[in-house]
Amino acid sequence: xxxxxxxxxxxxxxxxxxxxxxxxxxxxxxxxxxxxxxxxxxxxxxxxxxxxxxxxxxxxxxxxxxxxxxxxxxxxxxxxxxxxxxxxxxxxxxxxxxxxxxxxxxxxxxxxxxxxxxxxxxxxxxxxxxxxxxxxxxxxxxxxxxxxxxxxxxxxxxxxxxxxxxxxxxxxxxxxxxxxxxxxxxxxxxxxxxxxxxxxxxxxxxxxxxxxxxxxxxxxxxxxxxxxxxxxxxxxxxxxxxxxxxxxxxxxxxxxxxxxxxxxxxxxxxxxxxxxxxxxxxxxxxxxxxxxxxxxxxxxxxxxxxxxxxxxxxxxxxxxxxxxxxxxxxxxxxxxxxxxxxxxxxxxxxxxxxxxxxxxxxxxxxxxxxxxxxxxxxxxxxxxxxxxxxxxxxxxxxxxxxxxxxxxxxxxxxxxxxxxxxxxxxxxxxxxxxxxxxxxxxxxxxxxxxxxxxxxxxxxxxxxxxxxxxxxxxxxxxxxxxxxxxxxxxxxxxxxxxxxxxxxxxxxxxxxxxxxxxx
Amino acid sequence: xxxxxxxxxxxxxxxxxxxxxxxxxxxxxxxxxxxxxxxxxxxxxxxxxxxxxxxxxxxxxxxxxxxxxxxxxxxxxxxxxxxxxxxxxxxxxxxxxxxxxxxxxxxxxxxxxxxxxxxxxxxxxxxxxxxxxxxxxxxxxxxxxxxxxxxxxxxxxxxxxxxxxxxxxxxxxxxxxxxxxxxxxxxxxxxxxxxxxxxxxxxxxxxxxxxxxxxxxxxxxxxxxxxxxxxxxxxxxxxxxxxxxxxxxxxxxxxxxxxxxxxxxxxxxxxxxxxxxxxxxxxxxxxxxxxxxxxxxxxxxxxxxxxxxxxxxxxxxxxxxxxxxxxxxxxxxxxxxxxxxxxxxxxxxxxxxxxxxxxxxxxxxxxxxxxxxxxxxxxxxxxxxxxxxxxxxxxxxxxxxxxxxxxxxx
Lengths: 519, 410
What we know:
The structure holds two protein chains of two kinds. By secondary structure, chain A is α/β, with parallel strands linked by helices. Helix content of chain A is 24%, strand content 22%. In chain B, strand 7 (171-175), helix 5 (179-189) and strand 8 (196-199) form a beta-alpha-beta unit. Chain B is elongated, with a radius of gyration of 25 Å. At the A-B interface, helix 8 of A face helix 1 of B.
């Protein structure tokens, strides 16, 4: 049965129905405003819970049974334990053993450690994943092997979907490095510290049932209460929730690649010459090697000029922590800590403040932190001549990454994408992105090792940087240069079947991924 | 040469922008291409077409071709396939990719040569973006960085790189092998607008002359007009003893280089950071170069992680009289370029001397004086050279005379 599709405001063909639910096509940036009330989970009664506050049950299986796990439920997890998470897979292993079918897994992100869930997608325990799919999971989806249609949302879009009831979480299984028997929990302490639990807040508040899983049970109260026990149904204590060295990278590393360092240097120079970098600047950069190098160069400039950044928004790394500690940054607001220095800082520095994405990225929030950021450093797998960006598929058509906070961050004042012009032989600038994740009107600057392209919409930047000595080019010139070196690539071939929907930050469908054609 | 099967190129988890090709000649069955590539969706057809084109060029009609590709650019793929063909068939013609128009520039004898980036001649991934890092020269190395059994394929790759990669105005250099192999190397690079040939382990003027003769024969035969300059590398005690004679061996020599790794080995001493063990050799080479009117160039600095030590090393090198240094990592280039360029103190002093000289000329004075100090003509000439260099490097504005006089008024 063919599902009806329409052309959305971005010119992409999208379905009006996904997994049997109606879907709204993308209408343009800031155009869609859902009406009505926010979704609410069922009303609990406190007398149904133990009077002594002790919600500990004997096992995860017991907790799942008490939550009434059954066919078709939506199970949410967060990704703060990253590649060291030992619990998410366990949930589906138990569900499979219990004979439960057609679950929807709603993670805030998945990691290579989650590849074993392919088994549960194959045996029917899981119908679909609504969340990021990396590597083998993405390949599985791209090849059309998942029963339901994947839905990819940004971190903020995930909160939006929870708040407006697009996704109703039946059971949230929230791992916590430290928790008490009432269910209060935090991201620090114990053997599996991840720093902050910024992604779990919405799940705890809106899920019908909430299970906290910890390997570090402490006396009440566990403080600060990143997850509040008032939302929690059951607490499970296990030997080990994660593998510490895979939760936080011991140390994040600045790129050693001379070409990436060149891009980072060009970016820092661009920020300085454009006047975007200034005293009181607000900024956000990721944990990739190039972003870290940019952070180092920016720090040098701030020091030289005697300037101070008002605040930075994390994911935090040791390089941001260094700015904070040496006085070039006032505060770090933080949704996730990427390395041990960042974890140490959030534990000890009162100016390093946990800040859930619930507040930072959410479309249904009364204001948005990202629109207050002066500098936003992001990546992309592809950018096209209209500055549209792709972060989920590669040019060969395979779904290989999640959206993360990328779409939400596009709302910053200056969105800058430092990216290589080609990766091995694969050009990054293309005629038309394989999958549209972010509209070009929100992407301001592309910085490659072979030149800088400013979005023609940013007349102010173009005017300001004329005669600056920076290698300014049009995006078409950059694309032509890449193709002169690499050759003109062929396009990936797809079948009609839609395997994944890409949501915009407001819950509308901006694009879809179709099943890859395998010869 | 009579083998029916050959493998060339590189593959493996860490290899990028390269490919490994196995070519097996067959008696029948046409051309069968088995392509494994991470860019197959995007470039599979173009890779296979290119292979057919190369094999047709060499009149090979029946063969099995196995390609393990990690994103090699077309000039790399054709170089690898040509090398494979030449291992199984006796054939001379070259399958040449286009010479891009950006690559036709020539160079001059007295140009600045602060930094020259060494690139292993059989590693395409390091070549592709090498021109972006602002080195004064790029050295495609056929000698020590290429394994003996890879020499043939490296020549072809370097030849194609000279035609296809835009090094953005950097001097295009090739370090050839020693002896007879080196003379053969010339035939692969001289026809493709190489600017400078580096002669390794140079110990005598004759060595230079043999290479000069071979180059000139190739230039004459192919009617090449651009001069191919020479840069002998001196890496032994005997070479140091002959350094002046080597420096004077050809009109085309623009610089001599000291290679300290081999030199210290030859001397049987350890190479140290402060380098007292090679001080005599270095200063002797500098004097020989200056006496011959060419540039003395320093050895590479091998600790690529320590930029502070590199900087110190460059400043010492400059103080001795060296005018440039080799680089083994792109990150060294900026430090080296900065180190050899005239610094502020030097510039200020040179400005004063040149202004005093010009003033003396205007007043018809025969003697130039700065304060109470007399200034000799060589000092004036050196100051003038520093000013010229600073102008070329953009460290000094064309209007520096007005700027410095207005500063004095203020």
